[in-house]
Design goal:
Largest sheet: 6 strands, antiparallel, barrel
Number of helices: 7
Number of strands: 19
Strand order of the largest sheet: 6-7-10-11-9-8
Oligomer: single chain
Helix content: 10-25%
Distance between the termini: 57 Å
Bound molecules: cholesterol
Order of helices and strands: HEHHEEEEEEEEEEEEEEEEHHHEHE
Shape: globular
Strand content: 25-35%
Length: about 375
């Protein structure tokens, strides 16, 4: 039944929200939603999903061959999907609408050193508000593994679902003992948000994403219920040596569901388990970005504190009052900047129009577009 999962008092508001998304396509971030679907968490916290298995991130550095290293990258990548795409359903009962970050919003965090895996640091900055773009840097300095990326979304509506095209990409770099650097270009899957009719949205992934280095090209295809394995959240990863590099590098195919387990289905390891994310994950520890260790006014948990409190406690009047304060303050800042002919300075990133790594490695896979812009990390965190 329509709106089954929606509190009765919010059903008409949910129905008009659904009508409006059918007509407004592109950017859903600033649309008004009924309170039951609001999440108290800002999108600037989402990059933390990349590292909820810090030991898999650091294990990338411990491999000794290109083949093993690539498999470790793919394993880490697949293991992030459960958190990225199902964790709101687990913690809040359905997909929710995150807080829409303001320009310059920041989030800092870390995963502690445990069992010799080294500490991993996270830094996120909202580098654009219109359209929303989030840039991040995740680094395990002691292991020499670093992920830099940015993401944005283009949304459309089709057959009762929201289709989210992810824009942006990430580059993983690994410092090799030989002194060299291994680079992996990572692109992102397409999302379909289903269950809207009932008021219980959830994500399914579709199409494919890529993990490409000089040595290996890996495509990951995503399918939901009724496709190749018939199960929700299915994927098939195919790893092949880059063109001209056959020889000693093996090919692998891995199949399974990304929120549970997968195994090798072709290649030298056929039949062996590949990944298993049914165990616990490790959420990031938020840290203050000030030298004092405190959180500044633009740090997400400080900035949205009262809005988040209102949403969590069901005090939606306070939530919307506090949200308006933030939005008014932002509008005023933009006006002042316009009048003064200045621009909001980014703290940790520099925007450039093209990414040579994306262009070079992207050519090895079927990647479009052929070029993308990027946000270069200034390497100014943590403060020396
Ligand atoms: C952000 C980047 C992360 C992966 C990720 C997961 C969930 C996505 C989110 C991204 C972008 C914003 C998103 C969200 C799910 C719902 C939300 C698409 C891609 C939209 C804006 C809200 C739609 C509102 C309905 C839930 C009603 O690495």
């Amino acid at each position: 039944q329509a709106g089954e999962a929606v509190p009765p008092a919010q059903r008409s508001s949910w129905a008009s929200f659904l009508k409006s998304i059918a007509s407004v396509s592109g950017d859903l971030s600033s649309m008004t939603c009924p309170p039951f679907i609001l999440s108290p968490v800002s999108l600037t916290e989402f990059p933390a999903y990349w590292c909820e298995h810090p030991e898999l991130f650091s294990a990338i550095a411990d491999q000794t061959t290109e083949e093993q290293r690539t498999l470790a990258v793919v394993k880490w990548f697949i293991s992030t999907l459960k958190g990225q795409y199902t964790s709101r359903n687990e913690s809040m009962g359905s997909e929710k609408k995150p807080l829409n970050p303001v320009l310059g919003e920041l989030f800092y965090g870390k995963w502690p050193d445990l069992n010799g895996r080294g500490e991993t640091q996270l830094l996120v900055e909202q580098v654009s508000h219109h359209p929303p773009i989030t840039a991040y840097a995740i680094e395990n300095k002691s292991k020499g593994v670093k992920l830099i990326g940015h993401n944005a979304q283009k949304t459309s509506f089709s057959g009762g679902s929201i289709i989210v095209k992810q824009i942006g990409h990430a580059t993983l770099t690994v410092q090799l003992p030989s002194g060299g650097v291994a680079e992996y270009l990572i692109t992102l899957p397409r999302l379909r948000i289903d269950g809207l009719w009932y008021g219980a949205p959830y994500i399914e992934l579709s199409e494919s994403s890529w993990i490409i280095s000089k040595h290996y090209v890996c495509s990951v295809e995503y399918k939901g219920k009724g496709y190749f394995s018939g199960k929700t959240h299915s994927f098939k990863a195919t790893l092949n040596p880059a063109p001209g590099l056959g020889g000693s590098l093996g090919s692998h195919v891995i199949e399974g569901t990304w929120h549970t387990t997968s195994k090798f289905t072709s290649g030298p390891k056929s039949g062996l388990e590949f990944h298993n994310v049914t165990g616990p994950k490790e959420e990031v520890t938020a840290i203050g970005g000030q030298t004092s260790g405190e959180m500044g006014d633009f740090e997400t948990r400080q900035l949205w504190k009262l809005v988040a409190k209102g949403i969590r406690e069901g005090d939606f009047d306070m939530a919307s009052r506090e949200k308006s304060k933030i939005e008014n303050d932002q509008r005023q800042r933009r006006k002042d900047e316009l009048a003064a002919g200045t621009k909001w300075p980014l703290k940790h990133f520099v925007h450039v129009d093209s990414d040579p790594t994306y262009e070079q490695l992207g050519k090895l896979g079927k990647i479009s577009p052929s070029t993308e812009d990027m946000y270069v990390f200034k390497e100014n965190w943590p403060p020396a």
